[in-house]
Amino acid sequence: VFPPNSGNKEITWMMLEAGAETDVVNSVGRTAAQMAAFVGQHDCVTVINNFFPRERLDYYTKPQGLDKEPKLPVKLAGPLHKIITTTNMHPVKIVLLVKENPLLAEVEALQKCYRVLDLICEKCMKQKDMNEVLAMKMHYLSCIFQKCITFLKEREDKLDGFIKSLLKGREKDGFPVYQEKLIRESIRKFPYCEATLLQQLVRSIAPVEI
């Protein structure tokens, strides 16, 4: 287990990219993320929990089994990986990352990307060392991509319209209702209802009225 206790996010990221294992435990049975949380280095926890090796995504850029075409075109792997590894999960930030890359901001590209995200989500939940956090993140990104597709197809202002909808506050108090409903909808649609993380999210959100 690499030492995250120093609180240096850059070194943590470099070690992850060099192949440091995140699920190995130390002599007291704690992973690197758990040790970082224990000593209050929450930025390092965020980096570890959001890390996704590029080679795991590149797997989908090669035809598998009976497939004649890869599920993800090579040109989309870089832009998608940037979004997968971002630590800012605000929906506006995600849409801006899509919008800034012309390769991504197209219906067909986003369709391929969200299907790959769904496959990664499934893999995270079914693998031996289940990763609910990463699975939920992949599902959340998939939901935002699908909503991007809706706006690209149906609205003249396209992704700008999506961003405006996310930022618009209701008149009486400025609360962003559309954004709140989008996030709640993505949680509700998470396909693995037995997940502990999902149940925690539902318990914390259910009593709160919009």
UniProtKB/TrEMBL annotation:
Residues of the signal peptide: none
Top-level division of the source organism's lineage: Eukaryota
Designated name of the protein: ANKY2 protein
Species of origin: Eurystomus gularis
